[in-house]
Design goal:
Elements: H1 2-8, H2 13-26, H3 35-57, E1 75-79, E2 83-86, E3 89-92, E4 96-99, E5 109-117, E6 123-130, E7 146-148, E8 154-156, E9 161-162, H4 167-177
Helix pairs in contact: 2-3
């Protein structure tokens, strides 16, 4: 299977998903993983192939994709379905309920959940939500030009000057101590 991908070169996401169904037939242990999660891996591989192809077109020296070692790539993504949050627990399909600590409340519809294992061995989750917020209208009639100065930090076209914060002078003693 993998030799077939290497021999044919660039594969589309649909081709990789088709290879995935063939691979699942020959490797039954893949059925213990959520199908959307496996499809997201094929999406990532297709995106990486596309990026390499674009870099090659622009004249950069590129190689081929290499397999990541087990410790190099510790992320999986649930896209569109297979997850929900209830009572401070993250429910992932085919994994189960995971007690979670959220640093902020989720708003809107959850679209994607990325779970990553850090080098220290801790697991982190990134949740992408879709929020319907109307963007404020920008009034270009009251535009202001900003210029960086030497004596003051910035000047604007309305005549206001922002004083220099003197960051270097404030940090000289802590830098000398360090």
């Amino acid at each position: 299977m993998i030799e077939k991908i290497r021999a044919e070169g660039f594969q589309t996401r649909n081709d990789l998903n088709y290879f995935l169904t063939e691979l699942k037939e020959s490797e039954p242990w893949l059925y213990s993983y959520y199908a959307k999660m496996l499809q997201m891996i094929s999406t990532q591989v297709a995106g990486a192939q596309k990026s390499l192809k674009e870099l090659d077109k622009k004249g950069y020296k590129t190689g081929t994709l290499r397999f990541a070692r087990d410790c190099d790539f510790c992320t999986f993504i649930y896209n569109q379905a297979g997850f929900y949050i209830l009572d401070r627990k993250l429910q992932l399909s085919k994994i189960g309920k995971i007690h979670s600590i959220f640093h902020r409340h989720t708003q809107g519809d959850i679209k994607q959940v990325s779970v990553t294992k850090s080098k220290s061995g801790k697991w982190y989750c990134s949740i992408i939500c879709h929020i319907d917020v109307e963007m404020p209208k920008i009034n270009f009639a009251k535009s202001v030009g900003v210029d960086v100065g030497i004596k003051n930090f910035a000047y604007d076209s309305d005549g206001f000057a922002t004083p220099n914060p003197l960051n270097l002078k404030k940090m000289l003693n802590p830098l000398a101590r360090a």
